[in-house]
């Protein structure tokens, strides 16, 4: 079969690899109909992880079940399924408590596993024609309809970014009426803004610098903040202070808390230093977003850190950062009594509820998808998505569009 294979820093190729097969009675194999390229893939693509040449990428996968092992009960050949990016056994201490992001069994080396990702176990990714799914009963989420129908991309986003964005709003304690700031308007940040609106937030600010992404923020009804136009913390506070309705409703002392109650980091360790940055580029400063969130979030507020922080990071700006050690304004976190939540998303905790919002027509996360391309276009798509240019916001690869799969 054809698959997207990592070669070296900033290079992937589409090449023939061996077809996957059932390795355990509880496995299934799916024919992939859609596989997303994620901002998390870019960390590997840019050589910023321990990913090795030969790795088949792709942790955002959906398709049609082609083979099932004899131990699989609830999934059958022909079922249309979407898979959480986490691979989970379903029976370990963490899985039974719903913490599938920390499955203790699926990866011999660490307490988490996933498809096609550095440090996430020996599993190939789904940017390919076929994919082996371990513990198929537990990991497959059944979806209605036909492959390639108008909801295909909405359902695909249930594999990672829609639940991850929702998880960000959960960690940040977003409630009806909440004030929310999201840093990053990539797929995850855009959908975090979208989820905050779904959950009834009163004000949602989304910070970035890429014009197409900021335009999307506006389109979905949130407030875009361009960090190349000035300090985003000051911009948000000034907007709030400049609103006579907000000012007219303040209680005693509230003028000291003109930031927001809920902050979300949807950028992670490759965040850019806002000083000297332009729309698409700039120097990296791993703590930039965390520092700004601690500044912006009001006392007793919450911060959800869903952007990834990763070690080892061979391309980090200094020795400590290479080991994932960052200087943080922790005293301010303590002083303000801010709650901080972080980590990989337990996709399974949210994916069936979010699927049902899609089925009911109450959520259309696919409004963030910018490109639908055949597998062969992956090298070019990676390059353009990595440059965050030409409107490459979210790319979904469609293996069935490839000449080989059509044959
Ligand atoms: N926790 C999880 O389980 C999980 C799952 C999926 C993705 N992620 C992570 O979420 C993050 C976002 O993913 P994505 O697909 O949206 O990636 P992306 O790279 O497309 O988006 C990141 C955005 O952040 C912007 N940015 C950079 N520096 C900034 C700054 N200082 N302030 C504000 N914005 C800034 C960039 O311009 C870009 O638009 C990545 O770190 C990814 O690895 C985490
Ligand atoms: Zn992803
Ligand atoms: Zn487990």
TrEMBL record:
Gene3D superfamilies: Medium-chain alcohol dehydrogenases, catalytic domain, NAD(P)-binding Rossmann-like Domain. The keyword Isomerase does not apply. Keywords: Metal-binding, NAD, Oxidoreductase, Zinc. Coiled coil: none annotated. Residues 25-144 form the Alcohol dehydrogenase-like N-terminal domain. InterPro entries: ADH-like_N, ADH_Zn_CS, GroES-like_sf, NAD(P)-bd_dom_sf. GO terms for molecular function: oxidoreductase activity; zinc ion binding. Its cofactor is Zn(2+). Pfam families: ADH_N. The keyword Nucleotide-binding does not apply. PANTHER family: GLUTATHIONE-INDEPENDENT FORMALDEHYDE DEHYDROGENASE, ZINC-TYPE ALCOHOL DEHYDROGENASE-LIKE. Belongs to the zinc-containing alcohol dehydrogenase family. This is Threonine dehydrogenase-related Zn-dependent dehydrogenase. It comes from Corallococcus coralloides (strain ATCC 25202 / DSM 2259 / NBRC 100086 / M2) (Myxococcus coralloides).
